[in-house]
Amino acid sequence: MIIAIARTTMLAAALGSASAALAAPEKGSQKTRDFVQAAAASDTFEMVESYSALAESRDPQVRSFAEQMLRDHGQTSQRLQQAATSSGLKQPVMQVDGQQSQFLAALQSARGPDFDKTYWRQQAFAHRSALLAQQQYAASGDTPAVRQAAQSAVPLIQSHLAMAEQMSARAGN
C-alpha cells in the first residue's frame, strides 16, 4: 500500500514537473539543462528501483540500502530542483530514461536471490554513472547553484557506490 502511494506520488510529481516544464521558457546552457535532466533521471531511477527492492526483497541489507536510497536521493533530487528553480531553469522531468527502463524491467522480473543480485549489480552500475556525471558538472558546470548541488551530491554518491560495489561483490557479481 505504501509503495503504491509512493509510486502514485512520484507519478503525480513527474506529471506536474512535465507540465511546468512545458510552460516555462528555456534558460541556462544546453550543458546545464542536459545535466539537470540526467541527474533527475538518475535520482528517479534510484528511487523507483528502491521501491521495487522494498516490495520484493526479504534481505535486510537490500531493504536497508533501499530505504537509504529513498532518503538520500529524495534529498539530492530536492536540492537539484531548488538549484534549477533558483537559476531560472525549467524543473526537470522526474522520469527514467530508455536504458534505465530496461534495467527496471530486468530487476522487476527477477525474484528471490536473483532479484537481490540484480539490484546490487544495477546499483553499482548506476552509481558509477551518476558519480561520473556529478563530478564532471561539479568541476566545470556553468551554473553556480547547479554546480553546488552537484558538488554536494558527489560524496553521497561515492558512499553509495562503495556500499553497492561491496554488496555486489558479496552477491557474486
Describe the structure.
The chain is mostly helical and 173 residues long. The longest helix is centred in the C-terminal third of the chain and has 29 residues, at 112-140. The protein is 83% helix and 0% strand. Helix 2 packs antiparallel against helix 5 (112-140). The chain has helices spanning 2-23, 30-56, 60-86, 98-109, 112-140, 144-170.
Q: Describe the biggest sheet? A: none
Mean pLDDT across residues: 88
Number of helices: 6
Approximate helicity band: over 70%
What is the helix/strand order?
HHHHHH
Structural category: mainly alpha
Estimated radius of gyration: 16 Å
Low-confidence stretches: none
- Give the end-to-end Cα distance, rounded to a whole number of Å: 32 Å
How many strands appear in the DSSP assignment?
A: 0
Q: Please indicate the percent range of residues in DSSP E strands (runs of 2 or more).
A: under 5%
Shape: elongated
